């Protein structure tokens, strides 16, 4: 069938079952938006800044398990996507992102709104394409969806010159993908899996360290089964949170820099560490030579380059963590390991997570109440900073994929647009954004998108009138010389919410938390709850720079 | 240790930038990189000489494999192989020195490719050691300009690094 490339692109998206695209139009994208005009199957969500589009597509992908799609015009439209692409790349989120480009005859001439976006995004995309030959478009889109969603997921960018978009081609969507340089390994090597089973049988003090791979591979069930069968306590990375039930007796909470003391000490004492879909990130390991110093290491990951990158591994297994666990489960014996679990219980009671209840409204308490009010069933998006860590510590996620947050890149401003994407993916679920007064102001313009799309999003703003996490770092590392962290002016957030047609509540006292949260969560429309918390509150425990995770500042 | 990697890549625009960018952003050191077409016009072959221990090399290889356009990687250094590099050297030479320089060229089986009033340009092919020795022998005369192609390499005998072979020993009977 003959059609223009722009129409072919939209047809490809329909064939990939894309329901929503997040975008912002512009000159170079006119043909594509004109094609969208004629599509009945695809909803376009107009954001207020391209960064909002890519984060919304990211939140949509994490919440739905589908590939997120965003589009923007050439030049500044494209560069505004950069942070969002880097964010999705670091957190392994499947995205296909389209950018307009100046006509091919003008490429390389510094034309109006021209930027080399494939060059710029080379290190922050899983792959990218500049479509020069119009008839390549269907195959490029097919490949892009395949690359984005298989193996270790990630963002793929397609740059489409305006004249190419307007060219007529014979449309034929390929059924299969043939990429000889891209063949992810899904099944773990049987010998290695046997060896892992042997180490598990021989271990006396195993710990499972599970990351975001568990959620990407939808391996939560297998993880639970393994942990219970071999009686191994489980700690999650930040990205792994929600991958193991937070209220389970074997759960140790998050490990690492702001992890629980008992998770970090259990890892320090363990004789076998089973790493599943995690990457030994510096925020997890602290000083490397003090990380799990007595342990043999099993590492399962879909990305071979992660294995052996930061630490030496005894049993490397490249594969999809779900398939590897399915193969491993029949090979391990049911055990109880009473002595080790007793030791872990001892660590838990000796070093509980705790915070002072004195002087005023405590952010940790707000998160605990949020958990109670939502029954732990909400999808929680966060921004980046102290509030994010308090969520990680005090909201024991029950179901895989219910935490949506920027882990690897730590992108302030991610939360609001990501929550927009999540709420659009899950219109019937309660979606709550926990954010800070710094983060929310980085992409606040998306409040308009919330209102325009009539999303019932609940925004819990933990407002300490400061950039709390940086302030905390300055307290510890700069002897309290607070530089550029205190906001001397804030807008009236309630009036601001009202300006966007969003209901506002304020909480300034602990006694109000339960009641106001309950009321806010019950509102049919969007709500912003401005929680006035203390500027001095810190995220603890905290492993100091250069120390092993067996050390930490607690109180 | 120095390793010579034979890397087969899709002959797509930007593939060199992808590979070069990977090396620079991950902090790997490239000694030399030579790239050109193969017997299959859709496939290019890069010969990359990289310095590093086994761990670095493992990471280099794995990271290269993550590039969608990289099809196959062989570390030829672990096997029997031949490698060659071509150098062009322009040295100062007045008429009195030409004889000596031509003798040196003879010893290294180099060729004289251009003659100026005060310069001679020589071409020499060989492995690292030979090229280095050739360069050293000409240094006393004053090297005005020097350019090397970077190393290319191929496995010896009935072993292959191209696409149609699985591993590099398939045809060994």
TrEMBL record, chain A:
Residues 383-531 form the Thiamine pyrophosphate enzyme TPP-binding domain. Keywords: Amino-acid biosynthesis, Branched-chain amino acid biosynthesis, FAD, Flavoprotein, Magnesium, Metal-binding, Thiamine pyrophosphate, Transferase. Residues 3-118 form the Thiamine pyrophosphate enzyme N-terminal TPP-binding domain. Gene3D superfamilies: 3.40.50.970, TPP-binding domain. The keyword Signal does not apply. The keyword Metal-binding applies. Pathway: Amino-acid biosynthesis; L-valine biosynthesis; L-valine from pyruvate: step 1/4; Amino-acid biosynthesis; L-isoleucine biosynthesis; L-isoleucine from 2-oxobutanoate: step 1/4. Binds 1 Mg(2+) ion per subunit. InterPro entries: Acetolactate_synth_lsu, AHAS_TPP, DHS-like_NAD/FAD-binding_dom, THDP-binding, Thiamin_PyroP_enz_cen_dom, Thiamin_PyroP_enz_TPP-bd_dom, TPP-bd_CS, TPP_enz. Residues 193-328 form the Thiamine pyrophosphate enzyme central domain. Belongs to the TPP enzyme family. PANTHER family: ACETOLACTATE SYNTHASE CATALYTIC SUBUNIT, MITOCHONDRIAL (PTHR18968:SF13), THIAMINE PYROPHOSPHATE ENZYMES (PTHR18968). This is Acetolactate synthase. It comes from Desulfotomaculum copahuensis.
Automatic annotation (TrEMBL), chain B:
It catalyses: 2 pyruvate + H(+) = (2S)-2-acetolactate + CO2. Residues 4-78 form the ACT domain. Its EC number is 2.2.1.6. InterPro entries: Acetalactate_synth_ssu, Acetolactate_synth/TF_NikR_C, Acetolactate_synth_ssu_C, ACT-like_dom_sf, ACT_dom, AHAS_ACT, AHAS_small-like_ACT. CDD domains: ACT_AHAS. GO terms for biological process: isoleucine biosynthetic process; L-valine biosynthetic process. Pathway: Amino-acid biosynthesis; L-isoleucine biosynthesis; L-isoleucine from 2-oxobutanoate: step 1/4; Amino-acid biosynthesis; L-valine biosynthesis; L-valine from pyruvate: step 1/4. It comes from the Bacteria. Transmembrane segments: none annotated. GO terms for cellular component: cytosol. GO terms for molecular function: acetolactate synthase activity; acetolactate synthase regulator activity. PROSITE patterns: ACT (PS51671). Keywords: Amino-acid biosynthesis, Branched-chain amino acid biosynthesis, Transferase. Catalyzes the conversion of 2 pyruvate molecules into acetolactate in the first common step of the biosynthetic pathway of the branched-amino acids such as leucine, isoleucine, and valine. Dimer of large and small chains. Belongs to the acetolactate synthase small subunit family. This is Acetolactate synthase small subunit.
